[in-house]
Amino acid sequence: MQNCKLVLKMEIKIAEYCGFCYGVKRAVEMAEKAAEEKVNGATLGPLIHNPQFIAELESKGIACKDDLQDFTAGETVIFRSHGVGPEIYQKAEEMQLDIIDATCPNVRMAQKKAFQAAQDGFYPVIVGEKNHPEVKSIKKWAGENAIVVECIEDISNVPQKDKYAVIIQTTFELQKFEEILAELQKVREGEYRVERTICLATSQRQNAAIKLASEVDAFIVIGGRNSANTRHLYELVATKCAKAYHIETAAELDSEMFRDCIKIGITAGASTPDRLIKEAIIAMENMDFESLLAQSEEVNVYPGKIVEATVIQLDKDGVYVDFGYMREGIVTYPEWSLTETAEELMATIKVGDKVEVKVIPGTSKDDFVRMSKVKAERDAAWKNVAELAEGEKRAASVKVIRIIKNKAKNIVGLAVAVEGVEGFMPASHVELKRVEDFTGYVGQEMEAEIIEVDLEKKRIVVSRRDLLKAEKEAKAKAWKEAKEARIAAAKEARAAAEEAAYASVEEGTVVAGKVVKAAEFGLFVEVGAGLVGLVHNTELSWNRNAKAEEVAQVGDEVEVFIKKIDRENKRVALSIKATQEDPWKVEAGKLNVGEIVEVEVLRFLPFGAIVKISDKVEGLVHISEIAEERIAKADDVLEAGQIVKAQVLKMDLEGKKIGLSIVKAAHAAEQAEYSSYLNGSAGLTQDLSEQLQ
Predict the structure, then answer these.
(1) What is the per-residue pLDDT across 597-623, written as a single tens digit (0 to 9) for each?
(2) What's the confidence (pLDDT) of residue 420?
(3) Cα 268-316-64 angle, rounded to 5 deg
């Protein structure tokens, strides 16, 4: 009897409800349709919380933009399934953007209920993750006064109100919500409107996962680590199954996860594409490669062997090949090419094509031998990779294949295609500054440097850091040189303009100018292209009390007299007063010595008072001419603004000085009065008349 070995095969069970929910499926279909129609647009933020799908969508022409400012008029903005606030709709319309609204209907309902609650006078309390985009959008609709409660501890931040409206994040854990609600109602009494807006798909997936977790030895939760509903699923199954794992792709699976395990449970978040679920299932099924290896030993088929194969069939799963063995092989499209899509490959690969492939561990679901053209080419390519002397490096063009994480799920770098093989770019060598999200790098082609080659270990390390540093330094140098050139050119231009401006004016002439600035000490007036002079307060008007803002405003056209040009100190002295008629020649010239005039007391000096004779002519009443008796100060007798009569004593029109006397004006008035009296009184004697005089 031939010896035989019993091989235990894993039993894989899929949760009743898993993968895309209606809202996510709807958003994905809308985005994919936009890609098919070659719409010129992008999503505002990640459409769904799945990095692999976002990268795939970008490869189809629909990129992810973080801000509306990154869009231009005429483009299409796709609103993510998590929704946006009302201000985003308004801004998008103002920017003349076409809108594709992929907001999940359940999220939209939560937004409407939050808005209505606020309108009805209820204080909105949103239960959910504070930093989740869905919660942020609901809060925008609820208004500025709304508050987010993520855990029981947050309840202390809720103010005391009469009425509360409680809205739940659609992907929040229902049990956790009920606990928060109960505690909230306990410590904050009032009228409550409770909107149980958690979507049915979320509760179905959570309940199905919990049920299955108690029936299996290990549990795999598939979905983006940035997905709230996926994280909640993992948290729930981890309480029921000791061997629970959260993965994003099948690449994270390891046979050690399933040691001594027979039944394996699988679920996926609502934003996880079916493709990722299928890949994980196939990977787990193919972990039982030992039995295939035992069958293949006699014909020398083993993992790592390079064989020549012929293409016999293609379908959505991959390329089927015949390599002279009792079973055919399958090369999945990712194992056929790292750079081309399945659609592109199906259009180019033909039945009958010859290809070298490498046998890789495991078998497919239908018991096909798993093979890789990529790995075969990689092995061949390594033969052409040149060694690198210590301390040396060489330039290379690379294309990012995927993101590499360690066992702790931390990103450590990028896998890149370089010189026909797969290389490694450490995370710290991707940019000069720290990168938080590497998703956008997948599929990018970039220039780098090979800094390490280990042919024995088939290890090649590349870096962009020194190139970027040199580029940055070159740009900085070029910018500095350009700046210096601009400054020099500007100086030269200013000097030329200044020289031309100086040449256009000359001292002693009257020119038209434009007021460019008003200051406490005068007006700045442009009299030539770029040539600005100062009209000092003393040169504004013959009226000494005139102020700059009263004479002219910025922008006014004025005539100025060019008093002096000082090129050395770059100063031009101007005068508006010099363009006006000299009141000392016109108004003061009409006065006569001995004439009595009415004047207004303006201000006081230690030796007298300055009085206004007319708007533009002033004179001085000496302290000795103010009163008959001796006085200490002029303001002991006079007041500013007082109107008095004064007699002109002397005039110096050249020196612009007029001396007046209040005393003599009073004497003259008295004498006139007495004279009038005498002339009209016959009873007075001549002697008395003389005495009065």
Answers:
(1) 999 999 999 999 999 888 778 899 999
(2) 78
(3) 55
Pairing of strands 571-575, 608-614: unpaired
- Angstrom distance (rounded) from CA 400 to CA 447: 11
Instruction: Answer yes or no: 94 catalytic.
Output: no
How confident is the model over 141-164, as pLDDT tens digits? 999 889 999 999 999 999 999 999
Q: Options 2.120.10.30, 2.40.50.140, 3.90.950.10, 1.10.150.20; which CATH number does 394-463 get?
A: 2.40.50.140
- Which CATH architecture is the domain 504-579 placed in? Beta Barrel (2.40)
> Domain residue spans in the chain?
8-104+202-285, 106-198, 290-382, 394-463, 504-579, 590-679
* Cα 136 from chain centroid (whole Å): 17
Looking at CATH, the fold of the domain delimited by 8-104+202-285 is given as Cobalt-precorrin-4 Transmethylase; domain 1 (3.40.1010)
pLDDT tens per residue, range 64-90: 998 898 899 889 999 998 899 999 999
CA distance 197 to 102: 18
Which of 56, 58, 129, 134 is flagged as catalytic?
134
Distance between CA atoms of 633 and 604, rounded to whole angstroms?
A: 9
Q: Are 167 and 138 in contact (CB under 8 A)?
A: yes
Q: Which residue has the higher pLDDT, 674 or 295?
A: 674
What is the rounded distance in angstroms from the CA atom of residue 19 to the CA atom of residue 35?
22
Indicate the CATH number for domain 590-679: 2.40.50.140
**Residue count of the chain:** 693
Least confident of 196-205, 437-446, 662-671: 196-205
Return the structure tokens found at 31: 């985005």
Q: Find the farthest-apart pair of alpha carbons in the chain and give their distance in angstroms, rounded.
A: 180
Strand partners, 437: none
Helix H or strand E encompassing 327: none
Sign, CA dihedral 664-670-676-680, equals: negative
Cα four-point dihedral sign 30, 35, 41, 45: positive
Per DSSP, what are the bridge partners of residue 611?
601, 619
Which neighbouring-strand residues pair with 532?
A: 526
Residue 298 confidence (pLDDT) above 60? no
Strand order in the sheet with 76-79: 63-65, 41-44, 76-79, 98-101
Residue 346 CA to residue 315 CA, distance in Å, equals 8
The full DSSP string for 274-290 is HHHHHHHHHHHHTT--H
- Fold of domain 290-382: OB fold (Dihydrolipoamide Acetyltransferase, E2P) (2.40.50)
pLDDT for 362: 66
User: CA distances (Å), 30 to each of 27, 60, 101, 313, 368, in order?
Assistant: 5, 13, 9, 32, 36
Residue 202's φ and ψ, nearest 5 degrees, are -65, -50
E strand or H helix at 612: strand 608-614
- pLDDT by residue (tens digit) across 97-135? 999 999 988 899 999 999 999 999 999 999 998 888 899
User: Where is 635: in which H helix or E strand?
Assistant: none
SS3 for 329? Answer: strand
Amino acid at 327: R
CA dihedral for 46, 48, 49, 53, sign (positive or negative) = negative
As a whole number of angstroms, the distance between CA 103 and CA 114 comes to 16
